């Protein structure tokens, strides 16, 4: 497949990877995996080379497992590996498209591995506020029958920090990367997508998808309500003290929830002071 450019999208579950992946796949020059029959058409579920996130506990857990982090040093790296993955993904792409996109949340901590297998690949990471990600993941896991236990908010916040720390340490090794803030994607979708299209090298097109600019608000409201609750205030204050500094270093705040700052990655799209 010499004439194709591969695009990989990653970010924690509930961070907006599906939204961004589908917006990009709407472009006539970009094909995302489709018709796979697996959740969100994620490539992790239709290949047999590396283990998917669910093998490491699924959403809110996978980054805790060192084995889930794949780099250029992985024993899985090799020409046969690449061909095997392509054989398994190829039926779900429109091969007339010059850009072939694969989206899976654990790509967040596997970009070094993917760029080694696919030299010149374009890498896109989506980040979202840890409060929104944690509450949304908690809700998702509670609804999914395969997850038997409700995850504590502390564990979900810790997972967010751990996963993004791994990515932050990987980032200097990545050749072609941008980081997309979910907050800008929902607030200024066409402007945000224009930056991503420019990165890909294709004509920018406005999205026809309905994107809710208030997607984070219910989670922020819940956090604020619980901070005012006599039963929940003390535990949440402990979480703010435990994770506040690291969250700030990663570009967000547990105090000023609407602030999205620089300092997380060198190539971020959608930060503001």
Brief account:
With 273 residues, this protein is of the alpha/beta class.
Residues in β-strands, percent: 5-15%
Largest sheet: 6 strands, parallel
Number of helices: 9
CATH homologous superfamily - what is it? P-loop containing nucleotide triphosphate hydrolases
What is the name of the CATH topology? Rossmann fold
Account of the 3D structure:
With 273 residues, the protein is of the alpha/beta class. The protein has one domain: Rossmann fold. The protein has helices spanning 17-25, 79-89, 111-117, 130-143, 153-170, 182-187, 189-200, 217-227, 233-249, and strands spanning 5-10, 30-32, 99-103, 122-127, 177-181, 268-269. A 6-stranded parallel sheet has the order 2-3-1-4-5-6, with helices on both faces. Strand 2 (30-32), helix 2 (79-89) and strand 3 form a beta-alpha-beta unit. Helix 4 (130-143) packs across helix 5 (153-170), helix 4 (130-143) crosses helix 8 (217-227) and helix 5 (153-170) packs parallel to helix 9. The longest helix is centred in the middle third of the chain and has 18 residues, at 153-170. It is globular, with a radius of gyration of 18 Å. The model has no long low-confidence stretch (mean pLDDT 92).
Topology:
Elements: E1 5-10, H1 17-25, E2 30-32, H2 79-89, E3 99-103, H3 111-117, E4 122-127, H4 130-143, H5 153-170, E5 177-181, H6 182-187, H7 189-200, H8 217-227, H9 233-249, E6 268-269
Parallel strand pairs: 1-3, 1-4, 2-3, 4-5, 5-6
Helix pairs in contact: 4-5, 4-8, 5-9
What keyword list fits this structure?
273 residues; alpha/beta; Rossmann fold; six-stranded parallel beta sheet; 9 helices; 6 strands; globular
């Amino acid at each position: 497949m010499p004439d194709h450019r591969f695009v990989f999208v990653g970010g924690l579950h509930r961070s907006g990877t599906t939204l961004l992946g589908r917006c990009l796949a709407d472009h006539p020059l970009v094909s995302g995996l489709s018709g796979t029959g697996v959740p969100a058409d994620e490539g992790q579920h239709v290949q047999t080379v590396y283990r998917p996130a669910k093998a490491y506990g699924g959403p809110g857990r996978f980054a805790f497992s060192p084995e889930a982090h794949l780099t250029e040093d992985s024993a899985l790296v090799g020409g046969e590996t690449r061909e095997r993955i392509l054989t398994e993904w190829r039926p779900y792409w429109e091969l007339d498209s010059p850009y072939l996109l694969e989206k899976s949340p654990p790509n967040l901590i596997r970009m070094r591995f993917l760029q080694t297998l696919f030299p010149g690949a374009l890498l896109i990471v989506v980040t979202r506020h840890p409060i929104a990600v944690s509450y949304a993941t908690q809700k998702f896991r509670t609804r999914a029958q395969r997850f038997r236990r409700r995850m504590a908010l502390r564990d979900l916040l810790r997972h967010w920090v751990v996963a993004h720390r791994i990515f932050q340490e990987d980032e200097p090794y990545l050749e072609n990367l941008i980081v997309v803030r979910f907050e800008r994607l929902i607030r200024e979708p066409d402007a945000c997508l224009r930056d991503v299209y420019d990165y890909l090298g294709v004509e920018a097109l406005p999205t026809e998808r309905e994107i809710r600019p208030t997607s984070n608000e219910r989670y922020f409201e819940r956090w604020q309500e619980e901070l005012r609750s006599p039963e929940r205030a003390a535990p949440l204050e402990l979480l703010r003290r435990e994770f506040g500094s690291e969250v700030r270093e990663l570009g967000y705040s547990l105090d000023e929830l609407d602030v999205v700052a620089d300092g997380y990655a060198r190539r971020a799209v959608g930060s503001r002071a």
